[in-house]
Amino acid sequence: MKREYEVRFLDIDAAEIRTRLSRVEAVQRFPWALRTCWIFDGEVLDPSLCLRLCGQGTHVSLALGPSCTSSGLQGSAALETSVSDRVAAVEILRKLGLRETRYQEHFREEWQRGEAAFSIEAWPDLPVLVAVAGPDEPSVRQASALIGFDFGDAQPESIEQIYLTATKRNVLVEPTLLFADTAHAPAT
């Protein structure tokens, strides 16, 4: 499993972050688009793991990683693969005894520079944020500094933990996490 460390910086100016990323020659991997995630659960799945089937534009991926409550700075190991047929993937997961327990959506674009990944994200009822990820804490610190962030301002918590802190919502028990109107979701 590939280990990843991740932190988030909240309430950012997306246009400014794009400018900074361009200046350091980061490459945009995925443009700004709605990302949809179905979270699966079942008796066959270790409760310390989280299985997500996510789609963004034409790209669909299946990821198995630590529980959604895990902190990103401690590092987490995850497996992820591209899926060519979401409907078939759902059918396979159901036949394995898994069920869709939650659905989430957010807007996201992804940039890459070396081993560092940068995701500009807009989630329902949260300020726009940037997530910085890499193979280890020093690389995440360096990537954060590269685009002008003070690592002391980093939020290592999962997005679910950020919801609990920022909005007092436990999105782990909400079956859906949606924008009231995706046509009026934050434009960046």
Describe the protein in words:
This protein is of the alpha+beta class and 188 residues long. It has helices at 14-23, 86-95, 137-146, 159-167, and strands at residues 2-10, 27-41, 49-56, 59-66, 76-82, 99-113, 116-122, 129-134, 176-177. It has an eight-stranded antiparallel β-barrel. A hairpin with a 2-residue loop joins strand 6 (99-113) and strand 7.
Fold topology:
Blueprint lengths: L1 E9 L3 H10 L3 E15 L7 E8 L2 E8 L9 E7 L3 H10 L3 E15 L2 E7 L6 E6 L2 H10 L12 H9 L8 E2 L11
Parallel strand pairs: 6-9
Antiparallel strand pairs: 1-5, 1-8, 2-3, 2-6, 3-4, 4-5, 6-7, 7-8
Number of strand segments? 9
Helical percentage: 10-25%
The averaged pLDDT comes out at 90
What is the correct CATH architecture?
Beta Barrel
**What is the number of helical segments per DSSP (H or I, 4+ residues)?**
4
State the shape: globular
**How far is the N terminus from the C terminus?**
33 Å
Name of the CATH superfamily: Hypothetical Protein Pfu-838710-001
Which strand order does the major sheet show? Answer: 1-5-4-3-2-6-7-8
Strand content: 35-45%
Just give the CATH class: Mainly Beta
Give the tally of structural domains. 1
The CATH topology, please? Hypothetical Protein Pfu-838710-001
SSE pattern: EHEEEEHEEEHHE
- Radius of gyration (CA) equals 16 Å
* Main sheet record: 8 strands, antiparallel, barrel
- Unreliable parts: none
SS content category: alpha+beta
Organism: Streptomyces filamentosus
InterPro entries: CYTH-like_dom_sf
Protein name: CYTH domain-containing protein
